[in-house]
Automatic annotation (TrEMBL), chain A:
GO terms for cellular component: plasma membrane. PROSITE patterns: ABC_TM1. This is Carbohydrate ABC transporter permease. Residues 99-291 form the ABC transmembrane type-1 domain.
TrEMBL record, chain B:
It comes from the Bacteria. Pfam families: BPD_transp_1 (PF00528). The lineage of its organism: Bacteria, Bacillati, Actinomycetota, Actinomycetes, Micrococcales. It is a multi-pass membrane protein. The chain crosses the membrane at residues 28-48, 60-82, 132-153, 165-184, 196-214, 221-243, 324-344. PROSITE patterns: ABC_TM1. It is found in: Cell membrane. This is Sugar ABC transporter permease. It comes from Demequina capsici. Residues 128-345 form the ABC transmembrane type-1 domain.
């Protein structure tokens, strides 16, 4: 058996005892169960896409498969929610604004925590100082604190009685950056700590300062970890509802907020919700499927070494 | 964009006027400027710290490296958490000032009364019990299904694709997943043809339509299914990597000794990946505690489906009962304390062996 650890590669064609043993477990029943699970995990998303193609006047009465058989599926809903209106009334603004908001919220809040987290991760991994261990464990433990515990006071700090950036993009950026910090420091620390000590110690002996090591060694070597964390953070911020609802306003809401509002009220415009939900999923799905490999690596780095 | 719009002339172009584009354009510009400015400041500080001469240079650079994180966490998590704990022991009374008539807020210390209320009021108690059910079921179900799937497809043909299918919901927002399940799978019509896929399937077997989200107490379980659907892929990917890390020689030897697949699964695979299973269970438990999007989107807590995270949002930001909301946040934190202790312990073990 030569299948290397932590890769998705198939086993070598040469059959050993272990491979044969494996095949016994992968029996007919196991295969059937796997197919059922794969179907259950895929059909709902396909169903959403098909439902988003059902015209509004048929949405309440006809199922998507009947509409499909009648050949009445249409892309009209997508155009309507993106460019015309999404909400209880026809005067509600379209989702294109929220889509752009999502980009404005997500891109900076992917960059900020990555940079700040990488700096701290380097310090905790390679600069010995008093209290280093305690501080790192403390930051790690903060990762587990529910962010609900921080919402009200942080909103007061960022709100009109504080520095007054709540409800605007900088307020949302700050909130997201803070909440991402513990995980960013922890994951990047795990990665940076594995850099062979010879590299860093040799540079220190040659007289390199921490700044030089950070820019010349740490950043280039951490690119794989940065990539996976960037994807993780991107998905998390893009898909977030709570932080966006608490620290944002009508000017900054991303896609999740209007969709969540309309999804619960089953009104006359309920037929727009599936199309809107699919719109909100397109960019994360593209990011996910094109960069899946790095994303999975990042998850593994953080999860199997805890 | 203009060319594209022409196809949609029949529809009103309510929001997309010149002002829309100028606002959105300046928002995008703001984001770009913020990123460039941020990176410039970081670079300036770091290279500034590099200009320091002598023995204190290392210290200056250390301060430059860790101050941002410590500052952000102190202001954004530590102080707020302490403040919330204090808030949970108070009540806020609004009184008109006798001279000016303007309402002023008075904060009184009331001890544990918010907590007593949380554990005695039937709605609040139900919310707490629901949360406990979520915390128990979601990690067990997603880890169980993830483990089964990882074992079933291990080294199967097209393993990568099969993994992607189950992993995909990770990329979908909780709101998106709620829409998928709420209006596609669980949709319910009292009469007529069923547009929800599950009710349509049940109809084939002659079972009457079920109003999934309103049928107590099972509706909480149907909401739990949604989070399980999202989290299973995460569990599966990590468990699958752990299974591939088990040395094949052990399985080989056991199989020579006559152990069947089932026995090898229980006495070799499971013990070998126990550490990973615990990490996966922990991570999903934490994610479950924070979940509020699904309940907010689908039931808003109606039909006895509320969970602590949603209830605390409503209490704090809709009903203006912040101390009670704070008490719920603290209760949520108390639920995680065992998880914190466990994780810190295992982290320290890892650090010691390093």
């Amino acid at each position: 058996m030569t299948a290397p650890v932590m890769t998705d590669q198939l086993a070598s064609p040469k059959k050993t005892k272990a491979a044969e043993a494996k095949e016994n477990l992968t029996s007919k029943w196991a295969t059937a169960a796997a197919i059922i699970i794969a179907a259950l995990w895929t059909i709902p998303t396909i169903g959403l896409f098909m439902t988003s193609l059902v015209p509004g006047d048929l949405y309440r009465t006809e199922s998507w498969w009947n509409v499909a058989l009648d050949g009445k599926l249409t892309f009209e809903n997508f155009g309507y929610v993106l460019f015309s209106s999404f909400g209880d009334s026809s005067s509600a603004p379209p989702l294109l604004g929220n889509l752009i908001n999502a980009i404005v919220v997500t891109v900076p809040t992917t960059v900020f925590p990555l940079v700040i987290g990488l700096m701290a991760a380097y310090a905790f991994a390679w600069i010995p100082f008093r209290g280093s261990n305690f501080l790192f464990v403390f930051i790690f433990a903060l990762q587990v604190v529910p962010l609900q515990l921080a919402l009200i006071p942080l909103l007061k700090i960022l709100g009109p009685q504080g520095i007054g950036i709540a409800g605007q993009f900088p307020g949302v950026w700050v909130a997201h950056t803070i909440f991402a910090m513990p995980l960013a420091v922890f994951l990047l620390h795990n990665f940076i700590a594995q850099i062979p000590s010879d590299i860093i110690e040799a540079s220190r002996v040659d007289g390199a300062s921490h700044t030089q090591i950070f820019f010349r060694i740490i950043i280039p070597l951490s690119l794989p970890a940065l990539a996976s964390l960037a994807i993780f953070q991107f998905l998390w911020v893009w898909n977030d509802l709570l932080v966006s609802a608490v620290f944002g306003s009508i000017k900054t809401y991303t896609l999740t907020y209007p969709i969540s509002n309309l999804a619960g009220n089953y009104g006359a415009t309920a037929y727009l919700v599936p199309a809107a939900a699919f719109v909100s999923m397109v960019i994360p799905l593209i990011v996910f499927f094109s960069l899946q490999r790095y994303f999975v690596r990042g998850l593994l780095a953080g999860s199997t070494k805890g | 964009m203009a060319g594209f719009h022409e196809g949609w002339q029949a529809l009103p172009q309510s929001g997309l006027d010149a002002q829309f584009w100028s606002t959105q354009g300046s928002n995008l510009l703001l984001a770009a400027v913020a990123i460039v400015a941020f990176i410039a400041v970081v670079a300036l500080v770091m290279f500034g710290a590099d200009l320091v001469k002598g023995r204190i240079r290392d210290k200056v650079q250390l301060v430059a490296l860790i101050t941002p994180v410590l500052l952000l966490l102190a202001i954004g998590l530590v102080y707020p958490a302490i403040d919330t704990v204090w808030l949970s022991f108070t009540e806020i009374v609004k009184q008109p000032d006798p001279v000016t008539g303007i309402n002023t807020e008075v904060t009184n210390f009331v001890g544990l009364s918010n907590y007593t209320y949380a554990f005695t009021d039937p709605t609040m108690l139900r919310t707490i019990i629901n949360t406990v059910v979520w915390i128990i079921l979601v990690p067990l179900l997603s880890t169980g299904v993830g483990l089964a799937y990882a074992v079933f497809i291990d080294r199967a043909k097209g393993e990568k694709t099969l993994k992607s299918l189950v992993f995909m919901p990770m990329a979908i927002s909780f709101v998106g997943a709620s829409v998928i399940w709420g209006s596609i799978m669980y949709d319910y019509n009292e009469t007529g043809s069923q547009t929800g896929m599950l009710n349509a399937v049940l109809g084939v077997f002659g079972i009457g339509p079920i109003n999934f989200l309103a049928t107590e107490p099972w509706n909480t379980f149907f909401l739990i299914v949604i989070l399980t659907w999202i989290q299973t892929g995460f569990a599966m990917v990590i468990i699958s990597a752990a299974i591939k890390g088990v040395p094949p020689e052990i399985n080989e030897a056991a199989s020579l000794d006559g152990a069947n697949a089932w026995q090898r699964f229980w006495s070799i695979t499971i013990p070998s990946i126990r550490g990973t299973l615990v990490v996966v269970l922990t991570t999903i438990t934490i994610a479950t505690l924070k979940v509020y999007d699904i309940v907010r989107t689908l039931t808003q807590g109606r039909y006895n489906t509320d969970v602590v995270a949603n209830k605390m949002y409503v209490l704090s930001f809709v009903e203006q009962r912040e101390p009670l909301g704070a008490a719920l946040a603290v209760i949520l934190f108390i639920f995680v304390i065992p998880v914190v202790i466990y994780n810190v312990r295992s982290l320290q073990k890892v650090k010691e062996t390093r």
